[in-house]
Amino acid sequence: MKSSPSTQQFIDIENIEEDVVILKNSGLRQIVMVSGINLDLVSEEERNTTLHLYQNFLNSLDFPTQFLIHSRKFNIENYLKNIDELEKNETNSLLKNQIFEYKQFIKSFVEQNDIMSKMFLVVIPFNPISLMPKSGLFSFFNFGKKKEDKTDKLNTIAEQEKQINFRQLRGRTDQVIDGLQSVGLRAVALNNEELIELFYNFYNPENTEKEKLAILNQTEQKS
């Protein structure tokens, strides 16, 4: 009897390391979280200036980028816990009752309305061309060497090549971040932990967000 394929077989990600997503086809990706600007709240002159700067930023890129908006149901469990704590510690009976009524209102409102959180993301790609020597030629010039020596040399070459590719990708990421900041947007590359949490949420759409990404809080506070 055939076993059911695991979820991992349908995910294109091979690994996440050094803040870089490594795909199964060896492609590399970094993901930048970006703050938003509500253009409806600024003057027409400021809006036109922002759009002009954004157009200049896009025209300056000589590599493809992907822009995403990730919307998820907002998790208010921690917020409700804080309200419970306030209610528990409140000694004034009138205030205690008001806190209770407010808590019930929030619960009812969330049950009847989908409260969504949005994240604005930019995906920066780099698809490396391997410079690793082909095994046949490599074996010919290293005839007589121990297998362990050959493996160590191949691993060293692979690691050096990976670091070169990572630097190329990070150069692109820095260019994107600088360009977005010139528009007046705050942009930060996600680290390993944040990437893992982000993809967990991507691949578990039936669940609400476990919690806000810490970096999202920073982005909102400084935007």
Automatic annotation (TrEMBL):
It comes from Candidatus Liptonbacteria bacterium RIFOXYB1_FULL_36_10. Residues 30-113 form the TraC-like domain. Pfam families: TraC-like. It comes from the Bacteria. InterPro entries: TraC-like_dom (IPR058596). This is TraC-like domain-containing protein.
